[in-house]
Amino acid sequence: MRGLVPPSGSRLDDTAVTEAYRPPDGRFVRANFVHALDGASSVDGVSAGLGSDADQRVFTVLRAWCDAVLVGHGTAAAEGYGPLEADSDVGRLRTALGRPATAPVVVVSKRASLSPGDRLAVPGTWLVTCGSSDADRRAALTDAGVRVLVSGDDDVDLAAALDALAAEGIESVLCEGGPSLFRDAVAAGLVDELCLTTAPLLTGGAPGVLGGNALPAPVQARLVQLLEEDGVLVARYALTR
């Protein structure tokens, strides 16, 4: 990769790219998305069709730095999410950085849609849901070792959930979508940084990283870093809370 903003003057090696994404100490929420030139965030319902070596490299680095991955249940199901594993590129990089080899996946679901027997319904996973979700399902997930966090009454209170996670030592959170969860987090002023990879493709597909849903008001974003590799642009934006 080469740095465009700020200009690097030479290609960045793996160590430099990893260091570029080191999060600040304390509470920090960043989101990571890949989209096409026309704004589509998926091809045939999944993001893999937009992927590249550059995107995968940043994906690995971001997961290596975070305390937890935050994802909506619909995205987790569509993309085939499983627990982060120690014997993986992410796990090995986490170990090299002196961090725990794994990190929890935090699934957000208003209806507690995660089911016992799902790939993510294992010890270490968190489920964030609300009080109106099925109590029996929550109990079954708890019996399976899932940490169930009830936040809000009729809908998930993301701000309160992040407060509760921070109290458990989960401060640096990586939101991987989907668009509805990201939109809600941005609307609530909870996202500090957006990491956005632009694939050099036109798809005419999905409505974008916010799912086509307007925010209550536009949110200002400041470009803090832009990398390029094989025509793929990898940007970091600081968002105004």
The coarse silhouette is globular
Structural class: alpha/beta
CATH architectural grouping: 3-Layer(aba) Sandwich
Estimate the mean pLDDT confidence: 95
Please report the first level of CATH classification, the CATH class: Alpha Beta
CATH topology value: Dihydrofolate Reductase, subunit A
User: What topology, given as strand order, has the largest sheet?
Assistant: 2-1-10-11-9-3-8-4-5-6-7
The tally of beta strands, per DSSP, is: 11
Unreliable stretches, pLDDT < 50, 5 or more residues?
A: none
The number of domains is: 1
**Helix content, binned percent:** 25-40%
For the sheet with most strands, the description reads: 11 strands, mixed
Distance between the amino and carboxyl termini? 30 Å
- Work out the radius of gyration: 18 Å
Percent range for β-strand residues: 25-35%
Query: Can you count the helices?
Result: 7
Topology as H/E string?
A: EEHEHEHHEEHEHEHEEE
GO biological process, one term: riboflavin biosynthetic process
Pfam family, one: RibD_C
Domain Bacterial bifunctional deaminase-reductase C-terminal: 27-226
Pathway: Cofactor biosynthesis; riboflavin biosynthesis
